[in-house]
Design goal:
Its EC number is 2.5.1.9. This protein is an alpha+beta fold. The longest helix is centred in the last third of the chain and has 23 residues. The protein is globular, with a radius of gyration of 19 Å. The protein contains three helices and twelve strands. It starts with 7 loop residues before the first strand and ends with a helix.
Length: about 220
């Protein structure tokens, strides 16, 4: 589990297919952030929970602070990690230890979909970012609710009308967020990973199951 409070950023060293069909290996320089990260440990990269695997000592990118993770097809299809390249900066967060502070909100590292930045407006001391989101997520986003954008825990400041065919959400970014995460580099057209609040997912699922059950009951009657 994560909280959406970014511990630091890392730099992509490599992203390339492996000799196993459908598997791509991502190598990142995370610096001191992974000093005690064991093989098999979890790390969120732009909000995606990944499992660290060992780098062979002879590997070209085997250096202190570097780690690798294998990405399967589902991860590449559902997230924006496939658009990374050598030199890309990524948000990093270690998993929360038992008894740790929950400074952001509950983030599972299970990205729901990607969104597209459609506006970045400076507001003086802060920045307003609008993101186009899939229609399937529109019902899981509410004003003053929580959203993880590229792994960053944010408060939703605005949402599109309920009947909007091209839904969107807005978040406010303070200077500290812009300076310590990759969101300060986001431009119109950029893809971002989105994870909605876990409670919203359960509410949406309960409502869908309840509606289906009621429909079946009505048909039987």
């Amino acid at each position: 589990m994560f909280t959406g409070i970014i511990a630091g950023t890392g730099t992509v060293l490599d992203l390339a297919p492996t000799d196993r069909p459908g598997v791509t290996r991502l190598v990142i320089d995370a610096g001191d952030l992974i000093a005690d990260l064991p093989d098999g440990g979890s790390l969120a990269v732009n909000g995606v929970c990944l499992t660290a695997i060992p780098l062979a000592p002879a590997a070209s990118h085997a250096a202190p602070g570097a780690f690798a993770a294998d990405l399967m097809g589902e991860t590449l299809q559902r997230t924006a990690l496939g658009s990374l390249s050598a030199g890309s900066r990524v948000n990093l967060e270690r998993c929360v230890p038992a008894g740790g502070r929950l400074d952001g909100h509950i983030v599972q590292g299970h990205v729901d979909a990607t969104g597209t930045v459609i506006a970045v407006d400076e507001q003086g001391g802060w920045t307003l970012m609008r993101v186009a989101i899939p229609e399937s997520l529109a019902g899981q986003v509410a004003v003053k609710g929580s959203i993880a954008v590229d792994g960053v825990s944010l408060t939703v400041t605005g949402v599109s009308p309920a009947d909007e065919r091209e839904p969107w959400l807005e978040v406010g970014l303070i200077p500290a967020t812009l300076a310590t995460t990759t969101l300060g580099e986001a431009r119109v057209g950029a893809l971002v990973n989105l994870e909605t609040d876990v409670v919203a997912k359960y509410v949406a699922r309960l409502a869908a199951v309840g509606a289906a059950r009621s429909a079946r009951t009505g048909e039987a009657a």
